[in-house]
Amino acid sequence: MKKVKEFNWDEYILTESYETVRVGLDVSIPETPTMFSPDKKLIYLREYDVAFKTDDVETLNKILKELYVSLLNEARNIVWSCERLYLLEVDYMAIWRILRDIEALPDDYQYPEYYLEEVMKMIGAGRSPR
Q1: What are phi and psi of 96, to 5 degrees?
Q2: pLDDT tens across 11-46, in order?
Q3: Please, where are the H alpha helices in 9-111?
Q4: How much of the chain, in percent, has pLDDT values that exceed 70?
Q5: Are strands 35-36 and 42-45 parallel, antiparallel or unpaired?
Q6: CA–CA separation, 61 and 116 (whole Å)
Q7: Does the predicted model carry a pTM greater than 0.85?
Q8: Is the pLDDT of residue 122 over 80?
Q9: Could you identify which of 9, 23, 110, 126 might form a hypothetical disulfide with 114, taking C-beta atoms 3.0 to 4.6 angstroms apart as the criterion?
Q10: pLDDT score at 63
Q11: Nearest-5° Cα angle at 31, 29 to 37
Q12: Listed residue (54, 50, 129) closest to 97, CA to CA
């Protein structure tokens, strides 16, 4: 096998726009990903297509529960692609980290892997409402 000169992927991603990288893949990638504002006071969630204040504990806890329900529903209805499931997980984990960092998770909340394992069990069991 012929050795190929190493390409600096880290430099490339730092210098290219998200749009250039996204279009270059020629696959389905969200046009606007989940992300924080520069000052970290807002988080834009791709799933909701709206930004939320990162200090709004009540709303973030509600969203955490809603995202979990969405993860379960997506796992039940998965056909061939896990893309939506993955994107929901990204949003779920982002909200979980915010709430963890400000020590505002619900009292009865388990670690996030517990809930994600429940989602994966549904996929493994092949549960589907169809």
Answers
A1: -60, -45
A2: 888 898 877 877 777 666 667 889 999 999 999 999
A3: 9-15, 18-25, 57-77, 83-101
A4: 88
A5: antiparallel
A6: 17
A7: no
A8: no
A9: 110
A10: 97
A11: 120
A12: 54
CA dihedral 10, 14, 20, 22 (to 10 degrees): 60
- Identify how many contiguous H helices and E strands the chain contains and give both numbers: 5, 3
**CA 47, 52, 55: angle at the middle one, nearest 5?**
135
Please, what is the Cα angle at 105 between 103 and 111, to 5 degrees? 105
**Token reading at 17:** 């726009």
**What span, in angstroms and rounded, lies between the C-alpha atoms of 129 and 25?**
34
Identity (one letter) of the amino acid at 108?
A: D
Cβ pair 50, 37 in contact under 8 A: no
